[in-house]
Amino acid sequence: DVVFAPWAEDGFDYEATIDHIDEASECCTVSWADGGQTCREVRLPALISPLGSPCVNALRRRPQEVRLWASRRALRAALLAWQAQAEAGAAHDAFVDLAGLLCDVSAAECRLALAVPFWSSPGLELARNALQRGRFAAERAYKPDARALAVLCSQRAEMLRLEQGSQLADVLSLHGRAAEHLAAAHWRREQ
């Protein structure tokens, strides 16, 4: 069967053919359409058909995990749409939308990594990369937005908390930076 599956190296979905299914572990071995030989073991709930439908057995047995994968795909599609908009010259100067979107992508990767131990390592790495990209864009914007920077610092603190557990000094430092950004932000009064 031809499916689309996430490749653990970059997290994007690629065309593959299922070689073997292990129902007990809810994983399968795939052959990538491009002939690649890495990251061939994939969770069944992560697979989608060429039309975008999830694996029926996985949907019955692991509906929450299927929803997490779908959420992740939707946010990655939104990121691609933002990039197309930016290439057309219609992106916001302060990159507030990009920073927020990358925070959402990071949060989706973290939720999936926590729910699916199989995806823990690549998921947390992809989450970290999204936050680094958001920080890079937000800090180098023509008019950096303090609120976006605060959200990025807060999200990075949560990432560190997940990764380091009891070593919280860096987490507290990032929360302090988030507070500084929030103090510098200009807030509109509601009328």
Largest sheet: 4 strands, antiparallel
Form type: globular
- Structural class of the secondary elements? alpha+beta
For the record, give the distance between the C-alpha atoms at the N and C termini, rounded to a whole number: 58 Å
Q: Name the average pLDDT.
A: 87
Strand content: 5-15%
User: How many distinct folded domains?
Assistant: 2
Helical segment tally? 6
Strand order of the largest sheet: 1-2-3-4
Number of strands: 4
Q: Gyration radius, to the nearest Å?
A: 19 Å
The unreliable regions are none
Helix % is 55-70%
Q: Could you spell the SSE succession in H and E letters?
A: EEEEHHHHHH
Q: What's a quick, concise take on this entry?
A:
The protein has 191 residues and is of the alpha+beta class. It is 55% helix and 13% strand. The mean pLDDT is 87.
Task: Write a structural description.
The chain has two domains: 2-61, SH3 type barrels, CATH 2.30.30; 63-184. The protein is globular, with a radius of gyration of 19 Å. It has a four-stranded antiparallel β-sheet, with no helix packed on it. The chain contains six helices and four strands, in the order E-E-E-E-H-H-H-H-H-H. With 191 residues, the protein is of the alpha+beta class.
Brief descriptors of the model:
2 domains, alpha+beta, single chain, 191 residues, SH3 type barrels, globular, 4-stranded antiparallel sheet
Fold topology:
Blueprint: E1 2-6, E2 13-22, E3 27-32, E4 41-43, H1 56-61, H2 63-87, H3 96-115, H4 120-139, H5 146-164, H6 169-184
Antiparallel strand pairs: 1-2, 2-3, 3-4
Helix pairs in contact: 2-3, 3-4, 3-5, 4-5, 5-6
